């Protein structure tokens, strides 16, 4: 699985020179983030962290990940329409996890009132690692699927040119020409534009629901600009703005500052800290509206870790996707071992198994955004403490995926250049639209490769651990 530039990694002068070129190329290409010090101003920006060199990705696994994406789109959409499944699957979780419980309450409330929304837009990203099997053959294993606020589809479209230039500087033009073009933000925008069109009100706008702290604004602007290029108006608002100025008319059309909103694209709202009482009220208002929510609350719930674990149970996929045996097989092939910690004999056994051999597993709470999972000794301690309490049902247990590390340099502003042993995570963006019962779009929209040093068990780019990368297919 090695990339053909192991020789370069040991040539310090060449690496230093390439890194200088890389950073300037990244700034020129727009691989940008606002700074920690000034997260809401664009006066001072820096490059988003990225690898010096592209990372090797087995082409068969890359193709497999693309091939299963439409299946995952169908699956997420099916779950989002299956009240019985969501109710049953999340029953134990919402007893102990307040955040999931609040989302679930809004879900039930909206269903009771009856949905005003008839066009559904899903944008997700299914993430994988390449598990090294006993014989050394890597296998594609899903880490999770993100059904809300899946990010970096914009910035990642700009790393290809940067890595291409780095390879040329290093005398690897032939390899540079083999890097695949990639533009998820365009695919995401196409989905949003189509949903906007189907909503059917040409004067209505698309609203990006954004966080208070907006360091990753350039990633969002990539999608935004694609919409402006299609003459679709985009506004950016926070929950707070919606609370203060959002309203519904009799037909539950959503208005912000007097403008009708056709599509609400959430880049916010996936972790408890995004919400105070007012923000919950704003979320409810949005969910009750007829605007296309990307995602609606049901689709957000479909992306919980508990749902992921339930999907791995025998027979579940078959029930959710009846008559689609091939899709089910493709999906199942990507699953790692997932285990429920629900109260009962089975859960007791699983807890004991994890406590006895913590390095084999990852313990995951119902949280997004990186940095929440537990590993090794910490996993053992936490699980020991809660093994006899219902609190354990707020977690799921997963087999730890163990990829083959590779050497690379991680470029981060204000950090020294040093070689690290790294592992990568591949994400495939999915976009789909359903109008009533009919699927009118179902696509894979591009990919994202993120790479981190192996000493970090957890965490994404936004969490400051992983960096942007470009796959080099081998
Ligand atoms: P989050 O919603 O916080 O992104 P993830 O399930 O994606 O949660 O986990 C965060 C990170 O933890 C992943 O990006 C990956 O680096 C690591 N991780 C998660 N699950 C596993 C696993 N089963 N094996 C190895 N690493 C994992
Ligand atoms: Mg993740």
Automatic annotation (TrEMBL):
Q: Which InterPro entries match?
A: Glutathione_synthase, Glutathione_synthase_a-hlx, Glutathione_synthase_C_euk, Glutathione_synthase_N_euk, GSH-S_sub-bd_sf, GSH_synth_subst-bd, PreATP-grasp_dom_sf
Describe which pathway this protein belongs to, using the record's wording.
Sulfur metabolism; glutathione biosynthesis; glutathione from L-cysteine and L-glutamate: step 2/2
Pfam families on file: GSH_synth_ATP (PF03917), GSH_synthase (PF03199)
Q: Which residues bind substrate?
A: 125, 148-151, 214-216, 220, 267-270, 450, 461-462
For Mg(2+), which residues are the binding ones?
A: 144, 146, 368
Coiled-coil segments: none
Kind of enzyme, top EC level? ligase
The record's remark on the cofactor is: Binds 1 Mg(2+) ion per subunit.
* GO function term, MF aspect, one: metal ion binding
Keywords recorded for this protein, A-Z: ATP-binding, Glutathione biosynthesis, Ligase, Magnesium, Metal-binding, Nucleotide-binding
Catalytic activity, as annotated: gamma-L-glutamyl-(2S)-2-aminobutanoate + glycine + ATP = ophthalmate + ADP + phosphate + H(+); gamma-L-glutamyl-L-cysteine + glycine + ATP = glutathione + ADP + phosphate + H(+)
Domain named Glutathione synthase substrate-binding: which ranges? 204-302
Role of this protein: Catalyzes the production of glutathione from gamma-glutamylcysteine and glycine in an ATP-dependent manner. Glutathione (gamma-glutamylcysteinylglycine, GSH) is the most abundant intracellular thiol in living aerobic cells and is required for numerous processes including the protection of cells against oxidative damage, amino acid transport, the detoxification of foreign compounds, the maintenance of protein sulfhydryl groups in a reduced state and acts as a cofactor for a number of enzymes. Participates in ophthalmate biosynthesis in hepatocytes.
What family does this belong to?
Belongs to the eukaryotic GSH synthase family.
Protein's UniProt name: Glutathione synthetase
Q: From the UniProt record, report the name of the gene that encodes this protein.
A: Gss
């Amino acid at each position: 699985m090695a990339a053909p530039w192991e020789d370069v990694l040991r040539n310090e002068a060449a690496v230093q020179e390439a890194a200088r070129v890389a950073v300037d190329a990244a700034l020129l290409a727009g691989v940008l983030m606002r700074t920690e010090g000034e997260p809401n101003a664009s006066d001072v920006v820096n490059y988003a962290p990225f690898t010096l060199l592209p990372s090797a990705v087995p082409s068969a696994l890359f193709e497999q990940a693309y091939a299963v994406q439409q299946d995952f789109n169908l699956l997420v959409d099916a779950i989002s329409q299956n009240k019985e499944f969501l109710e049953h699957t999340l029953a134990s979780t919402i007893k102990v996890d307040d955040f999931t419980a609040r989302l679930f309450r809004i879900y039930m409330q909206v269903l009771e009132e009856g949905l005003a929304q008839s066009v559904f837009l899903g944008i997700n990203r299914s993430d994988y690692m390449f598990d090294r099997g006993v014989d050394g053959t890597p296998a594609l294993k899903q880490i999770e699927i993100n059904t809300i606020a899946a990010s970096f589809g914009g910035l990642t479209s700009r790393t290809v040119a940067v890595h291409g230039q780095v390879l040329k500087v290093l005398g690897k033009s032939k390899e540079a020409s083999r890097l695949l073009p990639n533009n998820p933000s365009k695919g995401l925008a196409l989905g949003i534009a189509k949903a906007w069109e189907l909503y059917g009100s040409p004067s209505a706008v698309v609203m990006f629901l954004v966080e208070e702290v907006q360091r990753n604004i350039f990633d969002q602007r990539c999608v935004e600009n694609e919409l402006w290029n299609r003459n679709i108006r985009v506004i950016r608002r926070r929950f707070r703005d919606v609370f203060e100025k959002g309203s519904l008319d009799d037909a539950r059309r959503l208005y912000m500052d007097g403008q009708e909103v056709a599509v609400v694209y959430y880049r916010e709202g996936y972790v408890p800290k995004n919400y105070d009482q007012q923000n919950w009220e704003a979320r409810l208002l949005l969910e009750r509206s007829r605007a296309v929510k990307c995602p609606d609350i049901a689709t957000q719930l479909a992306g919980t870790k508990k749902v992921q674990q339930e999907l791995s149970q025998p027979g579940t996929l078959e029930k959710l996707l009846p008559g689609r045996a091939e899709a089910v097989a493709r999906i199942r092939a990507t699953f790692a071992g997932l285990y429920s910690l629900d109260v009962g004999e089975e859960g007791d056994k699983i807890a004991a198994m994890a406590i006895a051999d913590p390095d084999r597993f990852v313990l995951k709470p119902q949280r997004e955004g990186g940095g929440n999972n537990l590993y090794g000794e910490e996993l053992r301690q936490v699980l020991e403490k809660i093994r006899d309490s219902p609190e354990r049902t707020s977690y799921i247990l997963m087999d730890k995926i163990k990829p083959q590390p590779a050497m690379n340099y991680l470029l981060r502003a204000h950090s020294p250049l040093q070689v690290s042993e790294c592992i990568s995570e591949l994400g495939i963006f999915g976009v789909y639209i359903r109008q009533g019962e009919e699927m009118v779009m179902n696509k894979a929209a591009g990919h994202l490769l993120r790479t981190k040093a192996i000493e970090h068990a957890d965490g994404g780019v936004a969490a400051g651990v992983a960096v942007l990368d470009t796959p080099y297919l081998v």
